[in-house]
Amino acid sequence: xxxxxxxxxxxxxxxxxxxxxxxxxxxxxxxxxxxxxxxxxxxxxxxxxxxxxxxxxxxxxxxxxxxxxxxxxxxxxxxxxxxxxxxxxxxxxxxxxxxxxxxxxxxxxxxxxxxxxxxxxxxxxxxxxxxxxxxxxxxxxxxxxxxxxxxxxxxxxxxxxxxxxxxxxxxxxxxxxxxxxxxxxxxxxxxxxxxxxxxxxxxxxxxxxxxxxxxxxxxxxxxxxxxxxxxxxxxxxxxxxxxxxxxxxxxxxxxxxxxxxxxxxxxxxxxxxxxxxxxxxxxxxxxxxxxxxxxxxxxxx
Length: 301
What we know:
By secondary structure, this protein is mainly alpha-helical. It is built from 13 helices and five strands.
């Protein structure tokens, strides 16, 4: 009887694993009626999303958006691809819908799933207008051959088909929903932090399968340079002496309230992204970050 139960448990476990592997991952559909992309606004969305830091070689070593330097992770090395208008190595042959599928659902034109080192779990919250604007802008970027070296992953993580199971376990694509009990500035800050800014991708801890632990959002993590990323919850910042206006100031000049310089990966984020934000957007992030409740002590998502 024990042997039979063991076999049945094994069959059940295998069935569940296969279900997660072959079940079609969740995807969101957007209504494009009346949506026209604006390339100028799209350039700003690219700043909000800090596209240049990942998709361009550092220190001007390669063309804008032609592919980034390897990002080392416990699963291997990832390289952000060419997103210029090059029709061969870039996205010049893509359609708007294919681009939206990539950004909102983490799927490339052939339907295979991207690795979440591309922060589509956060980008899934982008507004339809921002996606259209970003697409309009990227179409204006001059074509350039890819400078990306490609992924170098350990087995079994090199098997992209496993991403279907990962998505079924952890990916919940949905547009950002404002909190109607909060003001416009707070909601704008929430949108940037959880959506295009994808702050939680570095500032949140990850599970053993690389999933961000949403219940512990912004409570610290490990950055792309392998260094510890600090907690940026309201309580943690307050304990370190941060007050209203300090987050906005740091995002513009890279200085903490005590005069320390924000260095490492964050310095590049500031240089390529946040210092280019409008004062209103930096202030909105400040409002949101410094008004967040403490995260739950533990979560597997």
